[in-house]
Amino acid sequence: MSDVKAEARKIAFAARKAAFAAGQGQAAELLADVLAPHRGKPLAGYMAMRTEADPMAAMLAHQGPVCVPVIVAAGEALRFREWTPGCAMEMGAFGALIPAEGAWIEPEVLIVPLVGFDARGYRLGYGGGFYDRTLQGLRAKRATLAVGFGFAAQELAEVPIDEFDQRLDMMVTESGVRLF
């Protein structure tokens, strides 16, 4: 399975790179609109790296606590640290910026980065399983909304999955919103 996923990642990374070069369009504003009914709920965003779609506009528009993921250790679920505009940031694992300090927050709504996705709502991540473990744990406690965010070009015919993969509830791209 790891070889199949590695090949799918290679294809999806190339598509994302080309889509990123073409521009994000109105995707960030659309994401903010989709998240508006969830004001007041803790929202997990992420600090975009390389060619990821950037959710910053939606994070800034959210009326409620916002946090970003922190990788604690390989094989563990993510934790989320409170983020506010202008807060002190430091380099975290894998080169992602994270708040240098702040409260730990358990999100109810997550903007989920991805390498690829399919029409069933499955996502292809970077291969560490962090979001799958995190979503499984959060969903065991309460309803948790997972919103994939990326480019339409990242859609694959079928994401290879195993028993650990968690589905997204919706996907937001520059082409619109898809519910799963």
Automatic annotation (TrEMBL):
Catalysed reactions, semicolon-separated: (6S)-5-formyl-5,6,7,8-tetrahydrofolate + ATP = (6R)-5,10-methenyltetrahydrofolate + ADP + phosphate
Pfam name, any one: 5-FTHF_cyc-lig
Cofactors named for this entry: Mg(2+)
InterPro entries on file: FTHF_cligase (IPR002698), FTHF_cligase-like_sf (IPR024185), NagB/RpiA_transferase-like (IPR037171)
Keyword ATP-binding: yes
GO molecular function, one term: 5-formyltetrahydrofolate cyclo-ligase activity
Keywords assigned by UniProt, alphabetized: ATP-binding, Ligase, Magnesium, Metal-binding, Nucleotide-binding
UniProt EC number: 6.3.3.2
UniProt similarity note: Belongs to the 5-formyltetrahydrofolate cyclo-ligase family.
PANTHER family the record matches: 5-FORMYLTETRAHYDROFOLATE CYCLO-LIGASE (PTHR23407:SF1), ATPASE INHIBITOR/5-FORMYLTETRAHYDROFOLATE CYCLO-LIGASE (PTHR23407)
Protein name: 5-formyltetrahydrofolate cyclo-ligase
Organism: Cypionkella sinensis
Organism ancestry: Bacteria, Pseudomonadati, Pseudomonadota, Alphaproteobacteria, Rhodobacterales
